[in-house]
Each structure stands twice: as C-alpha cells, then as structure tokens.
Design a protein that fits this description.
single chain; 388 residues; seven-stranded mixed β-sheet; 16 strands; binds pyridoxal-5'-phosphate
C-alpha cells in the first residue's frame, strides 16, 4: 500500500491568487497587478549594507530570536513611531518573514480542534496556517457601510464559542486597504479580555498609510502584559520581499516559546539580512516617505479611473497598496479575472481568494509604475464595456 500524505496537509487549500498567477505566468505581455508586491527594487543603501555585513563576517548562525542589535533597533523604532517601550530581550522575536511570524505565533496559541476567528476578506495565509495547526478558521466578513468597510462586532461576539482561542485581523488590510480605528482596536481588545482570547494583529503594512507617518499600532492600546501579538515584516516598507525578514512583538511567555520553536523551524532569519535591516530602520525614513507619496498618487489615479467605470464601486482605502472594488460583472470573481487575463492581458487577484466577503470584488495592487497602471485601467474599462 502506498503511504499517503497527512490529512491535515491535504486539507490545506491552494491559494486562488496563485492559481490565477500560474495562468498569467505562462503568458507574455501581461500587466501583472495580482501579487502584493511593489515594483521597486530594494533601495541601494540596504543592498550595500548587506554587502558590508557579508564582508564583516555576518555569515554565521545568530540567536534564535535574532541579533540583539536588530531587536534593539526594532524596539527603538516602536518608541519613535508609537511612543511604546518594549524590552527587546523579552518582547521581540525576529523571524524569517512576516508569514513565518504569523505561523509561529498561531502555532503558539492553537491546539488541534481549537478555533480562530479571522476577519475577512483577508490575505489567505492566516486561515491556511490555522488549518495547518489542525484548528478551524471561522471567517468573519467585514461589512460595507456607506462606502467603508467596518467590523461587524455583534456577529463577531456571537461567533465566539467554547473552542475559540484567537481573533486575527489585519490593519492596514490586504486586500481592503481598510485601517482599524482607535475605537475598533479598543473594542477588539475588550472582547478578547472578556472572553480570554488572544488578539493577533497583522500590521505588516503599518508604514503604508496615507493619513500620517504610521498607522497606529494596537500596542498603543495595551495595558501591561496583554494577550496581544503583532506580526510585522520588512517586505513592504523597505521593498525587501525576497529577503524574508520580519518580526513579532508579544507577551514575554509567547516570545520565549516562539524563540524556542524557531530553532526547529528555521533556526533564525538570515544573518546578513538582519544586519542590513538594522540600516533600513535607521536610514529608511526619507525613501519611505517618497515611496508612500508615489503610492498615494497611484491610489488616487486608479481610484478615480475606477469610479468612472460602469458597475464599479470603490470602498475607502486608507492604507496598504490595494484597492478592492466591487464589480457587478465579477459575481464570479475568478472567472472574471481569468477572462480579463486571457482577453486583455491584465492580471488582477480574484476577490474570492480572500475568503468570506471577498466574492464579487477584485484586488488591484497599485504599487506599479504609471506605464503599467494606465494601460491596465484602460484595458479594464474596455473589458467592462464589452462584458457588461
Ligand atoms: C497581510 C499580510 N501579512 C503578512 C504578509 C507576509 O509578508 P512577508 O512574508 O513577505 O514578510 C503579507 C504579504 O503579502 C501580507 O499581505
């Protein structure tokens, strides 16, 4: 008899963004707006810092929690941006990417058979990781009211059951561009305190925010040792997607356990990348400001164009680099995106890929140059005229 794969992994679904991208990658001349990635390369000063780090001998193993100097730089950053004091030795763990921070965090709080409530539409990895822990992800869609997404707190609270251990949300959101308000953060914390739950905030887009230099972190609202975890990444703010570097902030017991688990997962993030990341945190502000300004212009350009199209409505988006328009003709969003790709060579991510509440919309990543965005919206517009 042939040995089979574990049922727990067979149940993990395929990403539907990847399914669309696989078709697109077999084609030439596609305007690719389906992945969550800027078209800008890593800034030169960060690349130089990595080269220096290699020359300086950062080619050996580091601590499981990451270099103490990087953790200190991350703590300093929280002080400067949010006025929060963190202990780099107790509260911060450097990880080999945001997704690894998410993975090890979720692994630390869920047992098989537990439940996690995931606010959706959301990047599919959170729910998939919950599934990989043999736990159940209960997806809770945001509701659209007067052109802005909101958390449905009544539905959220009534979904909490015996086995619920965790609420996971993303702000600024991929794919919505939605950002949690201070009152949202307080209500989420209240619910978690009342029901004895962990609150996991994915804040990897916090620096891509259009109403200030940083989207306020949930950590600003925490009192003492709260059951709160924040996951973060160097990927989006510093165009370092390929470097695989992130971090988590949490209560000391979870940080200690995540550090220990890191040994058995990746041991630690790459040494030279950690060293380069210290320089990114220290010197990155000016380049970041320029990038966010460019993103704001791109968001406004794409949003204005979308608003002119028939059967399209565009919810508010205050952060990240996505728009998530509802499109009447995209009731089957995968089929819509597949046809748009084949007929017009524009690659968008289907809303259905982002779970409950996502169907009927598409995600457009506008972190691309005008030479891509302009023909993309033009082709989408002409496709809608034919399709509608
Ligand atoms: C919401 C969200 N969280 C986490 C990540 C992970 O980023 P990375 O693993 O590149 O650090 C992404 C990447 O797209 C994301 O969109």
């Amino acid at each position: 008899m042939k040995p089979r794969l574990a049922q727990s992994v067979q149940a993990v679904p395929q990403s539907r963004i990847r399914e669309l991208a696989d078709i697109a990658m077999s084609m030439d001349g596609v305007l690719r707006l389906y992945f969550g990635e800027s078209d800008l390369p890593t800034p030169q000063y960060i690349k130089d810092a990595a080269i220096h780090a290699l020359r300086d001998g950062y080619t050996f193993y580091t601590e499981n929690a990451g270099l103490p100097s990087l953790r200190a730089a991350i703590a300093r950053n929280y002080k400067d941006l949010h006025g929060i004091t963190l202990d780099p030795a107790r509260n911060i763990v450097v990880t080999a990417s945001g997704v690894q921070a998410l993975h090890v965090s979720i692994r630390c709080v869920l047992d098989p058979g537990d439940e996690a409530i995931v606010l959706t539409p959301a990047w599919p990895n959170g729910s998939a990781i919950v599934g990989m822990c043999s736990a159940r992800a209960l997806q809770m869609p945001h509701v659209l009211r007067s052109g802005r997404y909101e958390i449905d707190f009544a539905a959220l609270e009534s979904a909490i059951g015996e086995r619920t251990r965790l609420i996971l949300y993303t702000s600024p959101s991929n794919p919505l561009g939605w950002v949690a308000t201070g009152s949202d953060q307080e209500r989420l914390l209240e619910i978690c305190r009342k029901h004895g739950l962990w609150l996991l905030a994915d804040e990897v887009y916090e620096r891509l925010y259009y109403q200030g230099p940083v989207a306020p972190s949930i950590l600003r609202k925490c009192r003492g040792e709260e059951a709160v975890i924040v996951v973060h990444s160097f990927s989006k703010s510093y165009c370092m997607t390929g470097w695989r570097l992130g971090w988590l902030v949490s209560r000391a017991d979870l940080a200690r356990k995540a550090t220990q688990l890191n040994e058995f997962i990746v041991s630690h993030a790459p040494s030279m990348a950690q060293k380069a990341a210290e320089v990114a945190l220290r010197q990155g502000e000016e380049e970041l400001r320029t990038m966010v300004e460019r993103l704001r212009e791109s968001r406004d350009f794409v949003r204005n164009e979308l608003q002119e199209m028939p059967g399209v409505s565009v919810p508010q988006a205050e952060g990240a680099f996505y728009l998530f328009p509802r499109i009447e003709a995209a009731a089957d969003s995968f089929d819509f995106c597949r046809r748009l790709l084949i007929e017009k060579k524009v690659g968008l991510a289907p809303g259905v890929a982002f779970g409950e509440g996502g169907e009927g919309s598409v995600r457009i990543c506008y972190a691309a140059s005008r030479t891509v965005l302009e023909p993309a919206v033009e082709r989408l517009s002409s496709f809608l005229r034919i399709y509608c």
